[in-house]
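Fresh eyes needed here. Kindly weigh in on this sequence plus structure tokens:
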Amino acid sequence: MSDRGIKSYAAYIPRQRMDRAAIAAAHAWAMPGLKAAGKGERAFCSWDEDAITMSVDAVRACLKSPLANAIGSLSFASTTAPFADLQNASVIAAASGLSAHLSSSDVGGSLRAGTSALIHALESTNATDSMVVAADNRRAKPASPQEMQYGAGSAAVRTGTGDLIARYLGSASAVSQFADHFRSSGQSYDYHWEERWVRDEGYLKIVPEVVERLFKNTGVSAAQIDYFCLAATISGVAPAVAKKLKIRPDAVVDNLASRCGDSGAAHPLMMLALALETAKPGQRILVIGFGAGADALLFEATEALTSYRSAATVSDQVARGVTDKNYTKLLSFSGELELDWGMRAEFDAKTSLTQLYRSSDQIISFIGGRCTACGAIQFPRMSACVQCGSDGALAPTPLADEAAKVATFTADWLQYYPAPPLYVGLVQFDNGARTLMEMVDIVPDKFDVGLPLRMVFRIKERDGLRHHHRYFWKATPVG
């Protein structure tokens, strides 16, 4: 039995949820059959969210557990990573406040990138902990079945030895030339094969073989599985695979289709996190990643799980959703619809990579400065203290996790903004810092001065000419 396992976990699901009935209604003139799939809602990213920002939210929540060991490695798994040749994991590490002295990697190529990265971390012999985070924001062609099925989200898992909430019992994998879908480099959309073929020749043949090998290697039987996590958008696949393996029907974990949708490479880890919310000591969790083969991972909940609660559970993330019926908003945010924003939107958003490097601790890590003479905290850091005028060096002071509230705000409808109106105002931190910030995910009738805020890492601007995203920190209501 392995002495490694899971030490903490967290999830992030965008707050915005599109009513599937609204999607179906928009296409009813051409695709009336979509009405049958127009049930529930699916998560979708705001214009300033992507796989990196979602990962930062999940990793930061995962790090809130009071564990002594340092993070020695970070793996980021995604099929929709913003950058093809600029390591995404390094941005996530810096924004999450992790040490610069760690190893980092991007993992992609299939929807089992998340489970493959998790296996690699669990099989590691390093003394330090590992952080695995998976996130996806997959594009779907309008009126396609995938537009209904896809969602967005991120899940982070901290692995290591010592204070485990779930012990790693083992894994098994297989590679296969079976392609249920694919997306070529440079293309926006996945191409999917016929569902019945994928179910019968893919899931029902590849997954059972891998799981049976795992059972044989670990000595665990199908009857001992309490949670079966198989992410599949095809209806009925998970129960069918469970039946073939003789796993109890009640062990099949909810695939979150009705409130979230398929979050791609993150979804197996998302379902694992959901299972850990209710698992009891001694219960076993089987997690499957599928894509050009399959991964199967087996865990056993420990006594420590009874006193553990994630800082960002899947259930909480699902519950905080706000339903939207403005289908064109989904199209605009996902890049399927280019609106004419007028002349105010005509500007060059070129990022100065030199300035980004020189001020990365402020821009990416949100580190302000504390005056060593009077103690005042400021952001951004200036050459002299804004309170006492001292020109002594300012002590680095992280602000990303500091409590704050709304001091002033305005809703600007005149300035160009991809999701009008632009909310901006003074944010008052409990430690005394005060700075002008953009405010996002606002519910107008519930937003006012004094409202508690938390900091989130988001896209500040998109450079459409050079295809670069400029990231920065914004404030959002707590909850």
